[in-house]
Specification:
The protein is 24% helix and 23% strand. By secondary structure, the chain is an alpha+beta fold. The longest helix has 17 residues.
């Protein structure tokens, strides 16, 4: 496999020995079989955006722009009109403040799920995660469903705050970072479920 750091694209070369009685269809099937290890061993990737809906979507254009940008980085097909339709369809039969999760999968399919948005507690508690986010990790710079590092235990706290390897605030489960410096850390800083 050859990967270009500049373009962030890779190429997997496969082939076979063509002999006198070889056929195009069987040679192609053989190459697909040889390449199956790559697809079977690779977990599919989905981009995610979580938005607050309360009579309208909060920061809708920011969320869609971020998803479109991430889609271009990963070579996924983003369709803004389709994303908007999926979001509107998801909320049309619901009332009250909502948490809406928009996803984009590798085949370009947008899906949205809806759940009630809980009211904020009168007093927020937090803890700083001992896990450090790697600022140069491409997957941690974008909102994807590869979120194991962020799926910590929220028992007895409302918020988990993550720092990068330099000790800079980069992301939280619920809230946005409070400073511009936090947004310059090289990671995806706006993972907030409130979509603020």
């Amino acid at each position: 496999m050859v990967e270009s750091e500049k373009s962030r694209h890779g190429e997997l070369g496969l082939g076979g020995g063509v002999v006198y009685d070889s056929g195009g269809a069987s040679e192609y099937a053989e190459c697909r079989l040889k390449g199956a290890f790559f697809e079977e061993g690779r977990r599919p990737l989905q981009l995610i955006e979580t938005l607050r809906y309360e009579g309208g979507f909060h920061r809708l254009e920011s969320h869609l722009s971020r998803m479109a940008n991430s889609a271009s980085v990963f070579g996924l097909r983003f369709d803004k009109a389709r994303a908007l339709n999926v979001l509107e369809e998801a909320v049309e039969s619901h009332a009250g403040p909502l948490r809406v999760r928009l996803t984009l999968d590798e085949v370009g399919r947008h899906l949205a799920t809806v759940s009630p948005l809980d009211t904020n507690p009168s007093r927020w508690t937090y803890r700083v995660s001992p896990v450090r986010v790697v600022s140069t990790d491409l997957l941690q710079q974008h909102k994807t469903d590869w979120r194991e590092v962020y799926d910590g235990d929220l028992a007895e706290t409302n918020e988990v705050i993550f720092l990068n390897e330099r000790g800079e605030l980069v992301v939280s489960d619920v809230l946005r970072p409070p400073t511009k410096q936090a947004a310059d850390c090289g990671c995806c800083c706006d993972r907030g479920l409130l979509g603020m």
